[in-house]
Known about the structure:
- This protein is α+β, with helices and mostly antiparallel strands.
- The chain has one domain (3-66, 77-336): monomeric porin ompg (Porin).
- The chain has 7 helices and 13 strands.
- The chain has helices at residues 3-17, 31-52, 169-173, 247-254, 258-264, 310-314, 316-319; strands at residues 60-61, 86-97, 105-117, 120-124, 128-132, 149-159, 180-192, 200-210, 218-229, 234-245, 274-287, 296-308, 325-336.
- It has a 12-stranded antiparallel beta barrel with strand order 2-3-4-5-6-7-8-9-10-11-12-13.
- The longest helix has 22 residues, at 31-52.
Amino acid sequence: MTITKYASSLAVAIGLAAGTAPLAAKDAGTKADEESERAEATATNAVATAAATTVVAQPTTTQQSDAPPALPPGVSTDDSVFDETWLTVGIGAGYVPSYSGSDDYVFFPLPLVAGRVGGVGITPSGAGVSLDLLSPEAGQAPGASQDVQFSLGPAISFRNDRASQIEDPVVEAAGELDTAIELGVNGGVTFPGVLNPFDTVTVGATVRWDVLGAHEGMIVDPSITYFTPLSEAAIVTLSASAQFVDDDFAQYYYSVSSAQSDASGLPQFEAEGGLNSIGLTAIGAYDLDGNALNGGLSVFGIGGYSKLMNDAADTPYTAIRGDADQWFGGLGIAYTF
């Protein structure tokens, strides 16, 4: 995978970690409403931790549960920073293959921004961003009810595969590629309360097209993500994903033309689209003062594995000069306000 593609894996997985944002219970003096508000506090706590590591809770709800989950003692929303407008900003560092299929690894910086501004949710998407036009109103948070939730909005991404930082001299001799800017749409459906009152499972996909005239192709990234809080300050996310590409994408990144073969000594190769990769990602995050609701600093870590498939694995750039088994990891720190 490319540096930006692994950055995208990191950000997408983090962005999905928060999962859902059901409608919070309305203010009232009844015992049931008070219990719902307390449930919201714990759920929002989980979201805050995720948000502090650039996680955005986005989707809307379709139904409300009559039985809010129980809340551990000692949790308060009095000093919560999560109102109508909030932001998380951060910086991370990752260690990833230098290009898709490379067995050389490089470090890369990863700035992160997440939040909700003007009723629109903001989720990092690698070297880009996804917007949620169905972002819930302030006070809504995962776990506050057992609702099915939805997210939908535009996505933009930046791809620089083999445009820079090519560590292999043979692959470098084949020539650098152009940078691509990809525009598309991101959507998902989230199911809360799967194994505990505050966890979620999200099934989503992003579809993007190159608009800068580089590969001129289409990419489809489906994924399924499990998110759960471990405490008032810690969360864990596990994600399984795949990537499908069309012929234009595959030919641009994986084919070896006659000119490239002459320059590099690699055999000629004609690539076709299809299933490009499958992967697994794990993320952990922790709020540094133990109270995610009040914002402030948090840290996160990520580790993952991806297996290149079909022509992405068979291309000489991978089969001869690289490795279809791709690993990546990263650490970061973020601030929520």
